[in-house]
Design goal:
Length: 410
């Protein structure tokens, strides 16, 4: 791997071809990074190389391409394990993304631990991907879904969380950073509190892994899930980290090729970790793209990325405050580079359409977090979210567009 380069915003931007395009005859300003990030050249080139010269089915062949593909795939697993500081490489399970990872847990961990009358604990700020799987598990098992309240400022009510832990839920599953509010939850404390009752904790890291250093051993979480496409990697690939003791105890999620050791007419013996949870042919190209994205983040510097995004956040908040009737949804003490807002009673879709015509990509709607919208009594929000390649100049363009939309729709 090359030596780390200084964080120079123009160099970083030059690595992302999508940022040089025009939409509606205006330079693209891309502020929809909480939904998905753009992809750097190293990721695009890695995918191209795989499909041009290396394509093969891994783990099962004795021929050269299969063997080389298997080595590349398993090297990528080691890269991810080091990135998260997992204790063991086989604690890294490749999935389709955060949603797939949490569905795996709801099925396998849920089957292992949850019975009629038991409960599972989440918070009121979860993305649907970390809410609906647990809700459906509880409905199937005739168990209870406990939901920790969120405050007016957009933070988990820790007193309510503590009181719900006293009900001894079988599983706790919480988001690290809210995709709507930008809230950075105190997961270290929340994990510690749950472990006082010996409750395993799942962390939805979809919104955190590209913005701050993750050390799963220091966090002491039992599971950590994230999606590749939110940290500059391809779509269709994600990671589930799990402590070895839990992964060994859990039954398989899906059945088929690769996850088996021996199959007879009467019975099947399942494979060892991590393959027990990786049925079927994996998305090898995307996994190798994920590895390249991690190398890109490491060369750029995760701490430098986080500091840059924090500066963008504070600058954008101050500029947006200049707009009459601006309403920020949530104002947590610790906030990542995500801003959800409304302008008076203007519907977010209406304002969002005007902002789009001015060349700016933001997200409007409920952001797959309808319980959050219900908590604040709103149909949805406009959301701007930042990444390593965004600039202060783009924020100025964005704020001018918001002001124009406010003027046109007032």
């Amino acid at each position: 791997m090359e030596d780390r380069k200084p964080f120079e915003i123009q160099y970083v931007r030059s690595q992302f071809p999508a940022l040089s395009q025009y939409v509606y005859n205006k330079p693209l300003v891309y502020f929809d990074n909480a939904a998905t990030t753009q992809k750097p050249l190293v990721v695009i080139d890695r995918l191209k190389l795989w499909y041009e010269l290396e394509n093969s089915n891994i783990h099962r062949g004795v021929h050269y391409l299969s063997q080389q593909g298997t080595i590349a795939f398993e090297t990528a697993r080691k890269t991810v394990a080091a990135f998260l500081n997992a204790k063991e490489t086989h604690e890294i399970i490749f999935t389709k993304g955060t949603t797939d990872s949490i569905n795996l847990l709801a099925s396998s961990l849920g089957r292992l631990l949850v019975n009629e009358g038991d409960s599972v604990l989440v918070t009121g700020m979860e993305h649907h991907s970390n809410f609906v799987p647990w809700q459906q598990l509880c409905l199937e098992k005739k168990a209870n879904l406990l939901v920790a309240a969120i405050t007016d400022s957009g933070e988990v009510d820790l007193e309510d969380y503590k009181s719900l832990l006293e009900k001894r839920p079988k599983i706790v599953s919480i988001t690290h950073i809210s995709n709507v509010l930008g809230t950075i939850n105190p997961i270290e404390e929340m994990i510690r509190l749950a472990h006082e009752y010996n409750i395993p904790v799942v962390i939805d890291g979809a919104q955190s892994v590209a913005h701050q250093k993750i050390d799963v051993q220091a966090l002491n979480c039992d599971f950590f899930a994230f999606s590749g496409h939110k940290l500059y990697a391809p779509m269709g690939v994600g990671v589930l980290y799990g402590k070895e003791k839990w992964l060994n105890a859990m039954p398989p999620y899906q059945f088929g090729g690769e996850m088996v050791n021996q199959v007879s007419i009467k019975e099947t013996l399942f494979n060892d970790l991590p393959f027990k949870f990786e049925a079927g042919t994996p998305n090898v190209g995307a996994v190798l793209g994920l590895e390249s994205a991690i190398h890109f983040i490491e060369m750029t510097g995760i701490e430098q990325i986080g500091l840059h995004e924090e500066q963008l956040l504070h600058y954008a908040l101050e500029k947006l405050k200049e707009i009459d009737q601006i309403r920020f949804i949530g104002h947590p003490k610790k906030q990542a580079g995500v801003i959800s807002f409304l302008i008076g009673n203007i519907h977010p879709f209406d304002a969002g359409m005007i902002i789009d015509k001015l060349g700016i990509a933001i997200r409007t709607g409920h952001h797959c977090a309808q319980p959050v919208m219900e908590r604040y009594g709103i149909p949805g929000t406009m959301r701007a979210s930042f990444a390593a390649y965004n600039t202060f100049e783009e924020i100025d363009i964005f704020v001018a567009a918001v002001k124009k939309a406010a003027l046109m729709l007032s």
